[in-house]
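Pipeline run #58 for the internal structure catalog. This entry was flagged by the ingest filter as a single-chain record with no existing model, so it goes straight to prediction. Upstream metadata was stripped on purpose; only the residue string is passed forward. Reviewer on rotation: M.T. Logging verbosity set to normal.
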Amino acid sequence: MLNPISPERLAALGLPYQLNMGGEFIRENMAKPDGTRVTAPQPPGMSGGGVWVRSEDGGYRLVGIGTEWDERNGMLIGTRLGLLIAMIKNRCPETAPYLRDCSYLNVSLD
């Protein structure tokens, strides 16, 4: 499992928390959906893959897209899904009724 990175730590890396997310990646401490512990693959090459979190109901939800492996700090970094949704809504306003609200991001895409 990823140990979330605090907003302050992301900021220290020059990554705004409203737009980015990340977690400390410990390969030997990953879990399958059934909870079985496994060793994850090496992170290089995972960019563009989904960042998923386990929901309280035991399911999973997509929260971002992986963008970077910071090997020096042992962290996986991603872009928040909300930002991507806001970008789609900005460029294709006709999709807005079908996409979740992302006004909490307080970002200008103009």
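catalog note: The radius of gyration is 15 Å.
catalog note: Strands lie at 3-4, 20-24, 30-31, 37-38, 50-54, 60-70, 75-80.
status: ready for reviewer M.T.
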